[in-house]
Queue: 2 jobs
Job 1
Amino acid sequence: MKYVVILGDGMADEPIAELGNLTPLQKADKPMMDWLAKHGEVGLLQTIPEGLEPGSDTANLSVLGYDPKVYYTGRSPLEAVSMGIRLQENDITYRCNLVTLSETEPYEEKTIEDHSADEITTEEAIQLIEAVKAYFETENIRFYHGISYRHLMLWEGGPLDVCLTPPHDILEQSIKKYLPQGEKCDIILKMMKQSYGILKNHPVNQARIKKGLRPANSLWFWGEGKRPELPSFEEKYRCKGSVISAVDLIKGIALGSGMNSIDVEGATGNIHTNYQGKAEATLEELKRGQDFVYLHIEAPDECGHRHEIHNKVKAIEQIDKYLVEPIKTTLDKWGEDYRILILPDHPTPLRLRTHTSDPVPYILYDSRSHSYHEEYTYDEAAAKATGIYFTEGHKFMDYFLEKSL
């Protein structure tokens, strides 16, 4: 038996006027997802436990079967695991975004224009992180470059009792109310303010401005946490698993739970990714003996944050055409029984440009099943209409893998 999860990050949404009061899932041409819906089970899944923030960290832990209330220790430590950073008990990590702030006001009154600095390239970002390292690194504070705008700061003995805000939650808002608060917040704020002076005139940013691109003119810290301790996925589910993703967070969850993390050349965290390569890697992992593959696609989430309405629809269509269809077709040819689960981790409504805690729609297709529901499609309203609702997201993996609940 083979098991495949295809997770479109942030794919769920709300009806919007620009799409004729449809959601992107309703608007998208996705014949294979809709076919699987008609021949499978469609319902809603609550991935974010009450009281926790609706991040991709908590949501993906939940989907993979790890109760975030038990195992979540912060977002950035999971990314640190992916980056090969060995964390000690006293280490605190922070996500370090390269963001675009408005230019005219004093720092405390600036507006956050883009949490990703127009999805700056990794090559450009490395140069900028190296520039700030020269100013800020000490015996206890170190910086590590990641992918695109996503980077990491490690602070030995750093503060956890601090209030930091994800930059994608406050797009086009003044940062004044969202500056660091709490223990040692003055040190963090000082680095942010000084980074603006370092980065705004950096040659990388001057070149970006000439190309009509936003500059990455400030650091922004958030997602603080300490070393995670995840049980082995294989021991938990008696199932050998692999994860395919372009983002460090998901890779970190994979490595932290003992699964294989597979890198795909040309895979990115946006709509311009190597869909074909991800599909081929999924099938290769199954072919070589893995029981389970978790295929994560970041594109719909990024489109939601950037309010790219038609790109979000396009991302869903590309997932259907270049991932769902070839994976299902190939599994049919192999002749071995399989199950496919399709879902988002959380909604990222275009209206809000950030995540919500609403339940997400899922499809569970079993190649052994002969059920058929003509009225089923794959979208938020159709999933709600079935009346199937799992309230504890972290228990759903047991259901998908046919383990005892």
Job 2
Amino acid sequence: MRENAELRMGCSVLSQPRSAPPLIAGLLWSACVLSIGMAAHAADESAPPNIICILADDLGWADLGCYGNTFNESPNIDRLAREGMRFTQFYAGPVCSPTRANLQSGQDQARFGITQHIPGHRRPFARLIDPVVPSHLPLEVETFAERLQAAGYATGYFGKWHLGGAGFGPDRQGWQTVVEARGNVVPPQASGDSQERRTAEFLTEHAIRFVEANKHRPFVMQVSHCAVHIPLTTTPELLAKYQAKPPMPGYPSLPAYAGLLEELDQSVGGIVAAVDAAGLAERTLVLFLSDNGGLEHEQSGRVVTSNQPLRGEKGTLYEGGIRIPAIARFLGHVPAGSVCATPAITTDLHPTFVELASATMPAEQPCDGVSLARLLRDPAASPERDTLYWHLPHYHHSTPAGAIRQGDWKLIEFFEDGTVELYDLGRDSGERTDLADAEPRRADALRTALHQWRQQVGAQMPKPNPTFDPARASQLGSGGESKPKKKKTQPPNRVSNSTT
């Protein structure tokens, strides 16, 4: 199947030349030209740090070399782990839009009802009617980009947004320089080139230009890749490379998946090379992570990856659906080669970025995350909270459910019948042994805490379906979403005259 990317550009990007140099040539040019002025850009401890967040799509916890995979090749991401901190218990939402919402806002996605991908899908004959998914992140929500822009940062967003269409894009949420893209191929009419482009390479070129254009001032940049989301495609060269490679025992070892992942890895390498060539390595936090757990099965049923030893996949609240790879590099600040086992979640990134930038949090906006700034300096630092929550009131690769993790204990509540499962993740990260019957008091206490949290954040619950039909319960209907509210007037400081 031929795949095209949806692509939108902010007005500041449209002022660029339509043709872009190939990625490798661009990197060599950057290294040669920028190295001349490296001394002028030496680390300044008094300057606020640059922040780069690179977000993969559907990348699983066990897909990278630095997490133990021997079939997929990710040398650039593995290098980040050697030079920085690798998290072993970092979490996201179970699907893409919820994670993107909590990352931008610092609030749990249940507060906005973005508890499923936008626009979601419906199962009209299932036992429960799940809540309608809003069509966008509310414009009233202040993102970390807005907070950092107010503190003097240049802001750039490149890639997949998936938090609203026209009028609700990143350009309306504090991101000044914007290139939106979805899919793993950019067609000629979108890229301005004579032939289609690979999306990872295309986004990388824009990201490198942004770094070069803003190297003399603090900047925050998010690069949200479409890789490794299905449908899986890669270059003929990478496909042939992995077709000739022996598989990894116990892992699907799919050549198209590995090739697409290597494109993602090359992008990370290109961006980091631009940062290093500009002499910004000691002034720039680079954070790499995924938007949810790995998608093990395509719609056809073909197995494309595995989250083992974790249980479950994207769209579930088992560890395989919500535990993600996450790596942070900040030379001279984050200990090189360190491993952090403290549970953290994507909701924490908003307050982390705000603290590192010495910006201010929104006065009247709740924050459900905690800053990881102290943890980045010391992976053994004591956590500032011991409880995490998830809310998935939809049918995805699971029935509607909610979950709570407190210390090493995790409880999942399934909404169709109210049953619960209880796991001791300290001893059973694969969630193989349900201890709900053996630990009834603990299970009840966690269930009560989960219910109280849902009430606190105003989480929407599914309702009994009067048209429930067991024989047709798995049948998909048309997607549903709420209509956008009246758009607020765009503040004048939301668009810059950046030339990147």
